[in-house]
Design a protein that fits this description.
two-stranded antiparallel sheet; single chain; 256 residues; globular; mainly alpha
């Protein structure tokens, strides 16, 4: 995820994508955070104190409220503002990293337009960075009580949530590869540990107050940089090579 942050800082062509969403991001994040701390923080501290003791309860309640704020803000932002922006960030990064052929399978590109963002044309098909997942929201609510477990509860909550959220960051990649639902599942399951770590890191960054939406964009950049590495590996050994454990050849039920 950190490469995404540094990449964003070094590539000004991505900055307008953030500026267009900066004010609604900041206002939405601040509104949600202030209200959660104002109305739910002390009740959660009181409840956690039963299990954790007074001092640890304040710390764990802070992480709990930040997690709730990040989830609510991300949900609202992705529903109303962000998914199109995340797709543009993801695709522009791929174009800049030499994966224009991959992006061109889903949208028109104009190489003469200038920087990678300006090259992005209209999508030829429906484009989604990360699909809305009711199941993920339900599981998030179910996993929240893990924070009641002293010391280990919050890390366990982050891992369980990251395990579910991590693979969604490559939903767009699988869409560009033309995978079916079954092929996508097989492909993503081959990298569960890496996706879990990616998801955990993304969630931790989104716990940072106010800056959570900035890190949502840099997470998309990090996801695209990972795809760029996978594509370079895939092309270097040949598309569909069975000797490439990381490139993700097309899944087949039966060998040819």
């Amino acid at each position: 995820m950190h490469p995404g942050i540094f990449y964003f800082a070094r590539h000004p062509f991505l900055w307008p994508l953030l500026r267009a969403r900066l004010l609604p991001c900041a206002l939405l994040s601040t509104f949600v955070l202030v209200n959660l701390f104002l109305w739910t923080y002390l009740p959660q501290v009181a409840f956690l104190a039963i299990f954790h003791g007074r001092h640890l309860a304040f710390l764990n309640a802070t992480f709990l409220v930040l997690g709730e704020a990040a989830a609510i803000t991300a949900l609202l932002f992705e529903c109303f503002f962000a998914d199109e922006t995340l797709v543009d960030v993801f695709d522009a990064t791929l174009v800049n990293e030499g994966c224009s052929d991959l992006v061109a399978t889903s949208r028109t590109l104009d190489p003469a337009a200038g920087d990678p963002v300006k090259q992005l044309g209209k999508p030829m098909t429906s484009v989604v960075y990360s699909p809305f997942s009711l199941r993920q929201i339900i599981e998030f609510v179910i996993f929240l009580p893990l924070n009641f477990i002293p010391v280990a509860g919050t890390p366990l909550f982050l891992v369980m949530t990251g395990y579910r959220a991590g693979p969604l960051h490559h939903y767009r990649y699988c869409q560009l590869l033309g995978f079916t639902k079954k092929e996508r599942k097989v492909y993503l399951n081959r990298r569960k540990l890496r996706y879990t770590w990616f998801g955990v890191t993304a969630l931790i960054l989104q716990l940072v107050p106010v800056l959570s939406m900035l890190f949502l964009l840099t997470t998309a950049i990090g996801s695209a940089l990972w795809v760029s590495d996978l594509e370079k590996t895939r092309k270097s050994v040949g598309v569909g090579s069975s000797d490439d454990p990381e490139s993700g050849p097309r899944y087949q039920d039966q060998p040819p």
